[in-house]
């Protein structure tokens, strides 16, 4: 697909599939590594900073074919705001999930905390990418999307009437090493894994520099404000450890530098200087 074709798909359907971003060997190695880490702990420990615990995908996160789309959609200062490792085990359930039951993720989702309220703005503020470390198939419960729903201006979270099936629901099938790229507003869900093996993928979110993610960080001012408003943010995105960050190639560092512990956290003295330093007003 050309860049124009990809952007058109994102605009009309809300998603496209980038094939062979990882070679079969790279995907297989990342699968083994990701699975081993996920089996060590729980999602609660990892938060959405899975990179602190596993770095196997880091060398690829600024892949040129992904970045050309990210930059075209979100600008040249776009950055990665969350990373998660996901393992979907086989289930004994014989039937696939019934249609419906779709959702969108933060900040569009309106069932968790710190979300965009009311009518959703018609603007792309994040691209979600699912990096497939195993194949995605109907049999193993590949992600299901409802094309075009990113334009709905509403989302299904918390609205029972919107949880109905959409006639165009589509299950994304692709080989390991592919990346599903979608507009963060797109309604989606995981299917039922009726195969004999796990389905493993990373979720990586890209967003423009101006998207405020602090509500996801415990003890931040925004987290407290949202909590007081009754929207306690669920899930957390701990800072990226600097010793981990140092391992990454420069183009990947560019995407992650906003997230590193210590480096960008204002000390009390700096905060006071920012208030009183008259040179800021000149
Ligand atoms: O399991 C999947 O394919 C979908 C996961 C999902 O819906 C999500 O991470 O928000």
Sheet bearing the most strands, described? 5 strands, antiparallel
Bound molecules: 2-oxoglutaric acid
CATH topology: Jelly Rolls
Report the strand count: 8
Distance between the termini: 49 Å
Instruction: Tell me the number of helical segments per DSSP (H or I, 4 or more residues long).
Output: 8
What pattern of helices and strands is seen along the backbone? HEHHHEEEEEEEHHHH
Query: Structural class, from helix and strand content?
Result: alpha+beta
Shape: globular
Strand content: 5-15%
CATH class: Mainly Beta
Relevant CATH superfamily: q2cbj1_9rhob like domain
Explain the overall architecture.
- This protein has helices at 3-12, 24-40, 43-46, 64-74, 221-228, 242-245, 250-256, 268-276, and strands spanning 15-18, 79-88, 127-132, 144-145, 170-171, 179-183, 188-189, 199-207.
- With 282 residues, it is an alpha+beta fold.
- It has one domain (3-275): Jelly Rolls (Sandwich), CATH 2.60.120.620.
- The strands form two sheets. Strands 1-6-3-8-2 form a five-stranded antiparallel sheet. The protein has a three-stranded antiparallel sheet with strand order 5-4-7, with no helix packed on it.
- The termini are far apart.
- Bound molecules: 2-oxoglutaric acid (AKG).
- The site of 2-oxoglutaric acid has 7 residues, from strand 7.
């Amino acid at each position: 697909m050309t860049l124009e074709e990809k952007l058109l798909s994102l605009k009309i359907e809300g998603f496209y599939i980038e094939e062979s971003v990882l070679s079969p060997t790279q995907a297989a190695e990342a699968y083994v590594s990701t699975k081993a880490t996920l089996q060590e702990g729980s999602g609660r420990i990892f938060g959405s900073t899975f990179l602190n615990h596993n770095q196997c995908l880091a060398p690829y996160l600024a892949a040129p074919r992904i970045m050309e789309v990210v930059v075209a959609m979100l600008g040249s200062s776009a950055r990665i705001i969350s990373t998660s490792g996901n393992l979907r085990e086989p289930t004994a359930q014989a039937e696939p999930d019934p249609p419906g039951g779709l959702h969108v993720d933060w900040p569009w989702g309106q069932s968790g905390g710190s979300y965009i309220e009311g009518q959703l703005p018609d603007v792309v503020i994040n691209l979600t990418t699912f990096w497939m470390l195993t194949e995605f198939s109907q049999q193993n419960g590949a992600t299901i999307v409802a094309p075009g729903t990113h334009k709905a201006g509403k989302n299904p979270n918390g609205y029972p009437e919107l949880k109905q099936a959409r006639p165009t629901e589509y299950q994304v099938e692709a080989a390991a090493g592919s990346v599903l790229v979608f507009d963060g507003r797109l309604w989606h869900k995981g299917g039922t894994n009726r195969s004999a093996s796990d389905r493993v993928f990373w979720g990586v979110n890209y967003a423009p520099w101006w998207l405020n993610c602090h509500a996801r960080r415990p003890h931040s001012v925004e987290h407290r404000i949202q909590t007081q408003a009754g929207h306690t943010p669920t899930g957390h995105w701990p800072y990226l450890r600097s010793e981990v960050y140092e391992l990454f190639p420069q183009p990947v560092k560019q995407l992650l530098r906003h997230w590193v512990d210590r480096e960008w956290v204002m000390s009390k003295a700096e905060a006071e200087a920012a208030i009183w330093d008259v040179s800021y007003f000149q």
